[in-house]
Amino acid sequence: MAETQKHLSDEGHVTEVELYTSRMAAQMRPHITEFTALVYDYLAARITELSKETALLELLRASIESNVETIFDALEQRLSPDHLRPPQAAFDYAKTLAQRGISVNALVRAYRLGQQRLLQRVYEVVIADDELPPQLVTAVFQFQVDEVSDYIDWISQKVADHYEVERESWLANRATARETQVRRIIDGDDVDPSSAERILGYGLSARHIGVIAWTPPGTDLTSDQLGRFTAAIRALGQALGTKRPVLIIGRDQNTAWGWISVPDDWSFNSALLAGFADSAATGISGSLAARHGSVQLAIGSAHPLTAGFRLSHQEAVRVQQVSIAGSCDAPLVSHDQWGMSVVSLLAGDLEATRTWARSVLGPIAEDTEANARHRRTLREFLRHDLSYTATAAAMLMHKNSIRYRIEMAEAELGTTVTADRLAIETALCAHHHLIPTEH
């Protein structure tokens, strides 16, 4: 305490400074509404995070009023923070901010700024008090500063602790509620879209692309896997041109589910796959084969409404199964890429599909460099509707070279690609996606 206060007091007795402070606090008590308004206006103008909604503003006002009243009580009755109970309104406000995801830093900063504005007004009261001896003005105000500062330190810690507890509880409960709601939609339960949207924080009326994010077995896991999944899915959302929030649900340390709303005019372009492979947002650098700790994404096709939310997720799950079965190291695979929709259904019986594909392709199913070249040439030829010109352009080769390659491949195949085009094309897709090769 100030030296002035010390020489005025006998040990164990109430000092003059304390008596004057107690009297002044009692005189200020009827003006709590005025003090509250001063602090409220000051905070509302300076901390925009705390003043976004009318409901939040009302809670802010109630919190300020309860704290000002408690401060006046403590000053009047000469009570230390150890003998006080935190105002319930202050806890209620901290709880609401925690549930809204507003930073605890904004909450603590409000107490510091509120202290500043309150003491400015208290100082005006002190210097205007005609009954206060001039030689005690500094000591009385310093005493009040010390007492209010002690209270703000104490209440700030209390509400910050309460905030953290409520935030963890809210996130756990919200995550559980969101996961439960997602599971109900995926399982085909009858859900109310409006209620589901409130729980999920995600609109169900648009077109959805389901996403599965995962890290392959054997990769190093970080302490924030969900954060890495979230970053990759959000990067994909930007690449898809979405303007809306994405929905992300953590499934386990290796997997997360996501949904991205895409514009009505969005359509798949294979350039997306190549572009995303180069994106730093995936955390991949260097060779894709060296995907140490990398994130991979599988996506479904775009479908509308709640049914589309479920369907695109189911497609993404199957695409992930194809990617894993084929040991694919691409950071992004899509249900819309050539042949994937059919192959993802065939992957339900993986061994039977592999056996069938090998039987259809015969010699060119074997894992050699020449056969890999035959399969790729045939795939591109069929993909470009048997056009030598279009295939040559896609493979950056001369049309006559493509013609020669097709003849060589058909000779190995033992038939023309048009003899049973559907079976050969499907088998080529299945082999490409489901049978790991070295070449």
From TrEMBL:
<dbReference type="InterPro" id="IPR041522">
    <property type="entry name" value="CdaR_GGDEF"/>
</dbReference>
<dbReference type="Pfam" id="PF17853">
    <property type="entry name" value="GGDEF_2"/>
</dbReference>
<dbReference type="Pfam" id="PF14361">
    <property type="entry name" value="RsbRD_N"/>
</dbReference>
<dbReference type="InterPro" id="IPR051448">
    <property type="entry name" value="CdaR-like_regulators"/>
</dbReference>
<comment type="similarity">
    <text>Belongs to the CdaR family.</text>
</comment>
<protein>
    <recommendedName>
        <fullName>PucR family transcriptional regulator</fullName>
    </recommendedName>
</protein>
<dbReference type="Pfam" id="PF13556">
    <property type="entry name" value="HTH_30"/>
</dbReference>
<feature type="domain" description="RsbT co-antagonist protein RsbRD N-terminal">
    <location>
        <begin position="35"/>
        <end position="178"/>
    </location>
</feature>
<dbReference type="InterPro" id="IPR025751">
    <property type="entry name" value="RsbRD_N_dom"/>
</dbReference>
<feature type="domain" description="PucR C-terminal helix-turn-helix">
    <location>
        <begin position="376"/>
        <end position="428"/>
    </location>
</feature>
<feature type="domain" description="CdaR GGDEF-like">
    <location>
        <begin position="192"/>
        <end position="322"/>
    </location>
</feature>
<dbReference type="InterPro" id="IPR042070">
    <property type="entry name" value="PucR_C-HTH_sf"/>
</dbReference>
<dbReference type="InterPro" id="IPR025736">
    <property type="entry name" value="PucR_C-HTH_dom"/>
</dbReference>
